[in-house]
Amino acid sequence: MAPIPASVIKVGHIDDVQELKKKKTSQIPERFIRDTTERPTLDKPISYPCNINIPVIDFSKLVEGNRDDFCKEIMKLRTCCEEWGFFQVMNHGIDLELLERIEKVAMEFFMMPLEEKQKYPMIPGTVQGYGQAFVFSEDQKLDWCNMFALGLEPHYLRNPKLWPTKPSDFSETVDIYSREIRKLCKNLLKYIAITLSLNDDVFEEMFGVAVQAVRMNYYPACPRPDLVLGLSPHSDGSALTVLQQGKGSSVGLQILKHNTWIPVQPIPNALVVNIGDTIEVLTNGRYKSVEHRAVTHKEKDRLSIVTFYAPSYEIELGPIQELVDDNNPCKYRRYNHGEYSKHYVTNKLQGKKTLEFAKIKN
Fold first, then answer.
1. What homologous superfamily is domain 58-357 in, according to CATH?
2. pLDDT tens-digit profile of 292-319?
3. Given 17, 252, 255, 325, which is the most exposed site by the fewest CB atoms within 10 A?
4. pTM for the structure as a whole
């Protein structure tokens, strides 16, 4: 993971939301209470003119379907990328027992005593470990969320001191799970390349040894979900993000479409995939990353397991030449991906503001 300045603010014990929940108080600390313009309007029904469920891709039809099924699913994938930037993937080929195991070890980790979890602190200068990321000032509002993040690939990103010894099968499960998600990302990028009429290996050849990280998010129930956010609005700096929503969790993920926050209803055993800033740049804005956030629930906790998949930090990126023409002139400059990653983690989450780094100024 790219380094961040030593001036980053370390979140204290008093800001651990699981510890706050244990106090069983209805009082929300000021540090979590959002300005009125940022608060989620959870009591208002969503007014949206069409089906508000994000689209679903049947991955098995891409991998082993007949020609007609394959073509239909590719067209659907193109629509997902062009119009939504988000989609759910069913029949993804990952063992459902493995999905249960990763949720189990994640929950076991979050349920450990605070003192145990604090053996793996999110140290200033990184976005790995336990705590809250993207916090840079004492007056910055905090998310109602505890995070545990780890760098996975390339291997040099791993900090062995941050890999917990409890639960005993944590490391093995994360490794097996991450290998499966990595295969899924590689395959999805092949099919996304096909939707753009590009060679199916264009992204894999360009990315080098892809960077991969995992972040587990735990959102305890909140007595006043109308005052807080589980996770601030942002787009992802990755190429692809794969999110597993914990079984039995509250609906918390929301995406911004036509200035309306739309909840993503979990489909059992499906994975949520979204386009990151990197794909927006590479496609010259044809496929856009989408702003999203998490909200909390008054009675239900929520767990999510998020994998970020991105090019090697050494790679120079810019719009793919075939996707730049007179009708779609170049919108983004060329840059080093490591520099962008560093820029991303040294700024707090503010919608799509970090992508300004790459935009060509008019």
1. B-lactam Antibiotic, Isopenicillin N Synthase; Chain (2.60.120.330)
2. 999 999 999 999 999 999 999 999 999 9
3. 325
4. 0.92
Q: Provide the residue ranges of all domains of the chain, joining segments of one domain with +.
A: 58-357
**Per-residue confidence band for 223, with pLDDT thresholds at 50, 70 and 90:** very high
Closest CA to 337 of 189, 203, 157, 207: 207
- Token pair recorded at residue 345: 């983690």
Q: What is the pLDDT of residues 322-355, one digit of tens each?
A: 999 999 999 999 999 999 988 888 777 877 888 8
